[in-house]
């Protein structure tokens, strides 16, 4: 585009790369994505969402940029956030099935274990009305289906 700054060019290229990721994987990239390059896309989206909510001043989210996001990356505002938590629940369930135990806070079995422990802990706190995870009825149903005793007070 004529008159675009290098920053605008980079912004549009990164949004386009996010769209390619969605086309390949069927979901938005997250900051937990294993591949470092894809993870940087997830971090970019996280910062864009923060700018949209007004919780950061690092990124200026002009009406033109919002229009680019809406056109190239529908759902960028976070519809994927719920899906991401649901995916993490499935990842915890796979860990439990594979290892016959709940994840612990130290990497005893594999390197994902502490992260999965933190996610499960956030879900348990949400069940107690604490934290910032949205524990919807659908999410509770998924937890109860995949991890029937997910909210027990001690992992033995």
Question: What does it look like?
Answer:
The structure is a single chain. The chain has 156 residues and is mostly helical. The protein has 2 domains: 72 residues, no CATH class; 67 residues, no CATH class. The protein is 60% helix and 0% strand. The protein has 6 helices and no strands. Helix 1 runs parallel beside helix 3, helix 4 packs across helix 5 and helix 4 runs parallel beside helix 6. The radius of gyration is 18 Å and the shape is elongated. The model has no long low-confidence stretch (mean pLDDT 84).
Secondary structure topology:
Layout: H1 6-25, H2 36-53, H3 63-72, H4 79-99, H5 113-127, H6 137-146
């Amino acid at each position: 585009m004529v008159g675009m700054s290098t920053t605008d060019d980079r912004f549009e290229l990164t949004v386009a790369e996010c769209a390619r990721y969605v086309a390949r994987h069927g979901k938005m990239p997250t900051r937990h994505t294993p591949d470092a390059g894809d993870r940087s896309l997830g971090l970019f989206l996280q910062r864009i969402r923060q700018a949209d909510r007004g919780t950061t001043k690092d990124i200026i989210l002009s009406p033109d940029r919002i229009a680019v996001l809406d056109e190239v990356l529908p759902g960028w505002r976070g519809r994927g956030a719920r899906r991401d938590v649901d995916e993490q629940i499935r990842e915890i369930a796979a860990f439990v099935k594979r290892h016959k135990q709940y994840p612990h806070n130290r990497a005893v079995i594999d390197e994902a274990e502490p992260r999965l422990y933190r996610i499960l802990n956030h879900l348990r706190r949400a069940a107690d009305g604490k934290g910032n995870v949205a524990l919807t009825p659908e999410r509770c149903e998924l937890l109860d289906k995949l991890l029937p005793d997910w909210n027990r007070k001690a992992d033995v």
